[in-house]
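Field: sequence (string)
Field: structure_tokens (string)

Example rows 1 and 2, in order.
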Amino acid sequence: MSEPLPILMERSIQIAWDYLERSGELGEPQVASRFLLDSVEAMVRRGERRQLALSNRAIDAYKRFRAARVGISLVS
């Protein structure tokens, strides 16, 4: 039996958060938490239920998001 979706989402976000924090790539906590929540929620709505897939894809998406933000601020 699979775990309830809120628990799955919470654990996936926590894995992503811990990785980003340890690697020094977390950035602003409020921005990171909102991005990770939105990212994991979107994947769950599309049917993804694998915890590590959720966390790894959220990490990759957040890294791309941060890189794009840095690129935009350097151009401004």
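Row 2 begins here:
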Amino acid sequence: MSAADDQLLEELLAGKHRALARTISKIENRSPGYRDLVSKLYAHTGEADVIGITGSPGAGKSTLVDKLAETYRERGETVGVIAIDPSSPFTGGAVLGDRIRMASTVGDMDVFVRSMSARGTLGGLSTATADAVKAMDAFGKDKIIIETVGAGQNEIDIVRTADTVGVLVPPGSGDSIQTLKAGILEIADVFVVNKADRPGADRTVKELMEMIDLGEGGGFGGGSGHHGPDATDHATHDAGDAADVGGSNADSADADVSDGDASWRPPIVETVATKGEGIDELLSEFATHQTYLEESGEQAENARQRYAEEIRTLLREDVNALLEERLQDAGGVEALADAVRTGDTDPYTIADDLLEPVEECLEGLKTEETPETSSQS
């Protein structure tokens, strides 16, 4: 790592916000040396709670995130916010970079807000997002909130980055809840019915309850995936408890935590973010979920899966870069495509030819390692 990057890391760890901003810029732009810099961050991470906020466009995500950050600050905790926005088709940058709906914490140096573009990724999270989270974690932020684009079912990538995922469902969603059932709703650790002072909020809460109850039989919210191996041990959801603004099913969540073998049942919290209503109840549910993760051992398993996915992602990126170089050496993909068009070859033969040196290299490494492994045994 260069001397400049060493100094940048030192300043970041010393709590200088300018160094944090420069580090995230270096990460997002994939500037030379960023990988060495990120690798140094790992030793200083693992203390922050990472919260993902997602949901359909217009659900009030930015306003809610603003209120969450404000409330955390009132409690004396520092906050980092990563707002994933649609990418500009011209510059690749974040279209909504001004974050005009996050005004309550403007001027508070202990709330660091950074807009990042989705960069065309289906899940709404660029590869750089996880690295930016590590930078904020190493910096010493207590809470890191990721707000996603809100592009529907493709938002599920947030599960790989956040510890706790809050899914916003606006009142009167109706059939859209069923549309989202097989996608974005399955990732929720906490459901948030925002704008709960509007007509249709009670019905939306009821529909979510029914979906959670149905899912406990296997499938949505249970059986596998994000919410653990067995959702059938949960306490039943009391519809009356969630009827008031700011209500939740905290009792059932607490019951789950007390049993190490039970899975998490997503609670439903009603909020009116513009008025700050329901925010304390929502933060309480986030804290309860964090406790559940620690006591159930799911946090360690989630971290293991997250790092495994990071390794796979880096390998895909690196192998892809190597193959792009090979493609250029072979005349470029256009020339190869033209050869397929004229019948001189086919895509499978081209792929085999390009991968052959890689396979030979891996086989050679395997052959070299075998004697050493045998001698150790």
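free_text_note (row 2): The mean pLDDT is 78.
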